[in-house]
Design a protein that fits this description.
The complex is a heterodimer of chains A (180) and B (127). With 180 residues, chain A is mostly helical. Chain A contains 7 helices and no strands. Classes of the chains: A mainly alpha (180), B mainly alpha (127).
């Protein structure tokens, strides 16, 4: 059992983890559940659960970054969220992350249409592929981190990401053809 | 092959734009920090209890405050009680001023050391 000074150090370390990764957890939660309200709930639950198990995680991590562990908690909570509510994620492009700066109104509309198509495509992917893309592109995680978060090998993660992007290309292409 | 690589890279670029990181709302940050502060406050209670237990042991605190000789003089139950009582009196002020749990711990031990020295001076003014 931890002594009080150990606990103080643990709290300080957890505070650092929280500051460093709040945006990561929130971004993950937002793209996973598709709305701010549930993303806030998921983020809060993730950090509370992380706090409960932080001492053990820190001990077992042996100095490795704890972001994959944190995202894995969010991933498990999100899975429960869907199990409880029996629904798929939904993303509102109007609330999504910042658009690249457009030069013209026409450019803005095209960009927004394109981003909306990509987000729709991402939501159609199987869960593991969608998660891997969110971790790579929204959180900037590398293959090793994603592998740890998804409990896979580095090689399997590389293949997963590659297949996810290829499948997304097909989905977006089909969507574009449907629009045209 | 080069064409396929280009398409792949283009899709990666579009994904980076579509899945841009999202800033958490300010009210969520406040709420989370309040929750974590409450938890830390509970930890502070535990910490203070632990420290006071340590302070009550004359083998620990007199050495830090005034040296081994003080342990003999102040090691009586009454003197220990006096140090603990005086240190405890300042706990609300300490908590209000502390910037965190570690800071609170340092302030508590500092107060205890000062009080121990005062008690030692009162009990052995001609040392």
């Amino acid at each position: 059992m931890a002594t009080a000074p150990d606990k103080a150090k643990l709290d300080a370390d957890f505070s650092e983890l929280y500051k460093a990764h709040l945006k990561d957890v929130y971004s993950y939660a937002y793209y996973r559940v598709g709305n701010h309200h549930d993303a806030e709930d998921l983020t809060e639950q993730t950090f509370l659960q992380a706090y409960r198990h932080f001492a053990r995680a820190q001990q077992e991590s042996q100095g490795r970054p704890l972001r994959p562990w944190l995202i894995r908690i969010a991933h498990n909570l999100a899975a429960n969220y869907y199990r409880d509510r029996s629904r798929r994620p939904q993303t509102n492009i109007d609330d999504a992350g910042s658009l690249s700066t457009p030069h013209t109104t026409e450019g803005l509309v095209q960009d927004r249409d394109d981003l909306a198509r990509i987000l729709r495509g991402v939501q159609q992917l199987p869960d593991d592929r969608r998660e891997a893309l969110i971790m790579r592109f929204a959180l900037g995680m590398d293959n090793r981190e994603i592998a740890r978060a998804l409990d896979r090998t580095d090689g399997a993660t590389k293949v997963l990401l590659h297949r996810a992007i290829r499948q997304l290309e097909d989905i977006v292409q089909a969507d574009s053809n449907g629009d045209g | 092959m080069a064409m396929a690589d280009d398409t792949f890279e283009e899709m990666e670029r579009r994904l980076r734009a579509a899945l841009a990181p999202v800033d958490p709302p300010v009210h969520l940050q406040r709420k989370l920090e309040d929750t974590l502060d409450s938890i830390v406050e509970l930890a502070a209670d535990e910490l203070e209890a632990w420290e006071l237990k340590a302070i009550k042991d004359p083998r620990n605190w007199p050495r830090a405050a005034v040296g081994p000789a003080a342990a003999v003089v102040v090691g009586s139950g009454a003197a220990v009680g006096l140090v603990v009582l005086r240190t405890q009196r300042k706990r609300h002020k300490r908590r209000a001023a502390a910037k965190g749990v570690r800071d609170l711990a340092a302030r508590t031990l500092g107060d205890a050391a000062r009080e121990a020295k005062k008690v030692f001076d009162e009990l052995a003014p001609d040392r």
